[in-house]
């Protein structure tokens, strides 16, 4: 059995649960959850133990037993596909089990067995010293079907599982726009009962603060099992709006991207980035609401991935608006001109999941990977290290978003008779993009996300027309989508996402 390095043991002491994504050389993906059970030692004691370099077998075994057990299992429940990241862990006579949040079937963490007869896929875990550097590392056995598995994502499930747990904060998130009065997070009338209904409600929520709050609430309900229906096969599934709602003041401030492009200062940049994140929240819900009903064969893991993406984008929006408030209190979010270019691409690709994944996630989001490092350096050079931290978080998350785009794009290709993902992607770009797919490319992060240069080098789109997102008429797109290629704002000569 092949063993895959997950991380130095010390890196896994910050939280009790981690999401893991692995990919084989054949582009097969698995999403996994790593559970680290409580050790009885505090984090400092564990850190000092695990940082000791040792080749001594007994010491290594003692470290392993101090961290008690580490388990890795598939992130989707084998019953109906619930996300197991928020499963309860219980000790029973036969061992330790993870209890699925949807229908409470329990699965032995070691064997995957359940009394129901279903079996979850679990993976062997080993803690051993890496002879190259003497560091204690955690390894897992790899899935059987592919070769040369690599780790493409490892991150804590959420701060709920931090070790030690975070202090309870009573401080309110520093949002800048008030939640609409009398409009609660959960509507008093016709509260959503499925993920589809939540997605459409959030798309129809114009206030960004309420959009963020509803996103957090819906994803939490979905993960903890309080919401256990996706609802994409229901005959009464609600339809997403053509364009997500925006507040009147926001609409009045929406301008041609050309007018935003040449403005240069940190507040303008943060405002522009927050605007893109607000659209990105909607894009994540839109792919769920628009393509779930038309693709009933999509597995629950697809919905878990894009719900996680919506949550990430809402975190990015909150982080950016908080930085904007800190550096420029007189220009809160919503006070500067914004643009709606991203939704032009959403409209162009609204007919096809394959096209949506290609253009939004593998062109637009992948472009973010190219641009973010230069943006981060600009903020670093100016001494704004708080914004550097925020941008680094955003960048790391976005690598995983492009990975999700690649995962589901290759999945769609396999469903359509194993069509070749590279040539199919290039054809989607030819018909759904205008102009060159611009570099320079961040080949390293693109490759992490599954995009080899065959996907994007020497690539041009030939699209001429897109529908007007206001729905009035078709229009010739000219400069607008050329701006989409570089995703709008420039700062000191560096084009930013
Ligand atoms: S028990 Fe997990 S989805 Fe039903």
From TrEMBL:
GO terms for molecular function: 2 iron, 2 sulfur cluster binding; metal ion binding. Residues 244-257 have a biased composition (Basic and acidic residues). This is Rieske domain-containing protein. Keywords: 2Fe-2S, Iron, Iron-sulfur, Metal-binding. Residues 230-257 are annotated as: Disordered. Residues 69-138 form the Rieske domain. It comes from Galerina marginata (strain CBS 339.88). The lineage of its organism: Eukaryota, Fungi, Dikarya, Basidiomycota, Agaricomycotina. Transmembrane segments: none annotated. PANTHER family: 3-OXOACYL-[ACYL-CARRIER-PROTEIN] SYNTHASE-LIKE PROTEIN, SI:CH73-314G15.3. CDD domains: Ferritin_like (cd00657), Rieske (cd03467).
């Amino acid at each position: 059995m092949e063993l895959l390095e997950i991380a130095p043991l010390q890196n896994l002491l910050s939280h009790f649960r981690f999401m893991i994504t692995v990919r084989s050389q054949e582009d097969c993906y698995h999403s996994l959850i790593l559970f680290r059970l409580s050790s009885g030692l505090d984090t400092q004691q564990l850190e000092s133990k695990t940082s000791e370099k040792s080749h001594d077998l007994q010491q290594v075994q003692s470290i392993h037993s101090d961290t008690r057990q580490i388990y890795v299992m598939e992130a989707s429940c084998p019953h109906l596909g619930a996300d197991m990241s928020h499963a309860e862990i219980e000790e029973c006579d036969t061992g330790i089990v993870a209890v699925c949040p949807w229908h409470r079937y329990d699965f032995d963490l070691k064997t995957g067995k359940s009394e129901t007869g279903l079996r979850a896929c679990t993976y062997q875990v080993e803690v051993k010293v890496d002879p190259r550097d003497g560091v204690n590392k955690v390894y897992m056995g790899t899935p059987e079907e592919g070769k040369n598995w690599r780790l493409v994502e490892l991150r804590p499930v959420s701060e709920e599982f931090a070790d030690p747990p975070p202090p309870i904060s009573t401080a309110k998130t520093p949002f800048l726009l008030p939640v609409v009065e009398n409009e609660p997070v959960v509507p008093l009338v016709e509260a959503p009962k499925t993920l589809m209904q939540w997605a459409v409600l959030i798309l129809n929520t114009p206030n960004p603060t309420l959009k963020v709050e509803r996103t957090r609430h819906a994803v939490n309900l979905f993960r903890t099992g309080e919401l256990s229906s996706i609802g994409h096969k229901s005959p009464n599934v609600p339809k997403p709006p053509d364009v997500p709602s925006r507040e009147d003041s926001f609409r009045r401030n929406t301008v041609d991207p050309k007018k935003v492009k040449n403005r240069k200062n940190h507040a303008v940049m943060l405002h522009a980035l927050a605007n893109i994140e607000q659209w990105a929240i909607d894009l994540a819900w839109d792919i769920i609401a628009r393509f779930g009903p038309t693709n009933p064969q999509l597995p629950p893991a697809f919905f878990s991935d894009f719900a996680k993406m919506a949550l990430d984008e809402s975190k990015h929006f909150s982080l950016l608006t908080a930085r904007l408030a800190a550096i420029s209190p007189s220009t809160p979010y919503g006070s500067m001109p914004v643009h709606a270019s991203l939704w032009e691409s959403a409209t162009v690709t609204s007919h096809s999941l394959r096209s949506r994944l290609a253009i939004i996630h593998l062109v637009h989001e992948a472009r973010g990977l190219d641009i973010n490092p230069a943006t981060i350096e600009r903020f670093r050079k100016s001494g704004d290290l708080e914004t550097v931290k925020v941008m680094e978080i955003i960048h790391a998350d976005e690598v995983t978003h492009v990975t999700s785009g690649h995962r589901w794009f290759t999945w769609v290709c396999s469903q359509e008779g194993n069509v070749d993902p590279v040539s199919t992607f290039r054809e989607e770009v030819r018909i759904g993009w205008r102009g060159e797919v611009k570099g320079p490319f961040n080949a390293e992060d693109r490759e992490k996300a599954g995009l080899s240069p065959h996907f994007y080098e020497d690539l041009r789109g030939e699209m001429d027309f897109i529908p007007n997102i206001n729905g009035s008429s078709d229009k010739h797109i000219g400069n607008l989508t050329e701006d989409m290629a570089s995703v709008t704002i420039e700062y000191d000569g560096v084009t930013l996402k």
